[in-house]
Amino acid sequence: MATKQTGNKASTIAGKVLGGAKPTQAQVKTLAASVLSQDEKKGRR
Questions:
Q1: How does DSSP classify residue 38?
Q2: Angle formed by the axes of helices 25-37 and 8-18, to 10°?
Q3: Residue 30 CB partners (closer than 8 Å, separation 6+)
Q4: Comparing 11-15, 17-21, 22-26, 41-45, which segment has the lowest mean pLDDT?
Q5: What is the dihedral of CA 32, 38, 43, 45, to 10 degrees?
Q6: Inter-residue contact 41 to 31 (CB < 8 Å)
């Protein structure tokens, strides 16, 4: 099974957000898309 990785763009945004920066709406969408793309159990929990 291949491992999934967060792209450089999403990692950079996440690092800035964790450092206290306020993300733009586009950055929030990028982070959300990254998380969802790595979700191995699709659907509602």
A1: T
A2: 120
A3: 9, 10, 13
A4: 41-45
A5: -90
A6: no
